């Protein structure tokens, strides 16, 4: 969520506007997408001398993959009701009837998500 907050609070970048304009081929929006993504994720521009960093394509792909992940999380997460009194919150019971895991990725349906540049507002 830190990356999302950094993208959302970027002083020049507007998540919804600039990703759409990037998709439409506007170079200034692409530059904003690159700068905001690098700042939010702490990645640097690719340097051919050191062979470190991400290319523009990789950086835009990072933003798109993050957007797809946010969409997936938003669609597949149910939030519990919010209680005003934190004293009412009790830790979960730690009694287990078995040492076997109850949920694994092997038991889950495929989580493949198509890439999208749009990051939903939370």
Short description:
With about 120 residues, the chain is mainly alpha-helical. It has 4 helices and no strands. Helix 1 packs antiparallel against helix 3, helix 2 packs across helix 3 and helix 3 crosses helix 4.
Give the topology:
Blueprint: H1 2-8, H2 15-23, H3 27-41, H4 56-76
Helix pairs in contact: 1-3, 2-3, 3-4
Structure characterization notes:
- The protein has helices at 2-8, 15-23, 27-41, 56-76.
- By secondary structure, the protein is an all-alpha fold.
- It has a domain at 1-44 and 55-77.
Helix content: 40-55%
Oligomeric state as shown: single chain
Number of helices: 4
Question: Residue-averaged pLDDT, rounded?
Answer: 77
Helix-strand sequence: HHHH
Structural class: mainly alpha
Ranges with pLDDT <50 over ≥5 residues? 96-116
Strand content: under 5%
Please give the number of β-strands.
0
Overall morphology: globular
Biggest beta-sheet profile: none
N/C terminus separation: 10 Å
């Amino acid at each position: 969520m830190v990356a999302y907050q950094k993208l959302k609070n970027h002083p020049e970048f507007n998540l919804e506007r600039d990703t759409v304009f990037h998709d439409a081929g506007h170079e200034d929006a692409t530059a904003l997408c690159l700068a905001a993504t690098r700042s939010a994720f702490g990645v640097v521009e690719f340097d051919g001398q050191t062979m470190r960093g991400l290319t523009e394509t990789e950086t835009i792909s990072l933003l798109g993959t993050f957007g797809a992940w946010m969409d997936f999380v938003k669609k597949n997460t149910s939030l519990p009701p919010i209680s005003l009194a934190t004293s009412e919150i009790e830790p979960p019971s730690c009694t287990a009837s078995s040492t076997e895991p109850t949920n694994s990725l092997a038991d889950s349906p495929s989580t493949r998500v198509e890439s999208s540049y749009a990051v939903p507002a939370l």
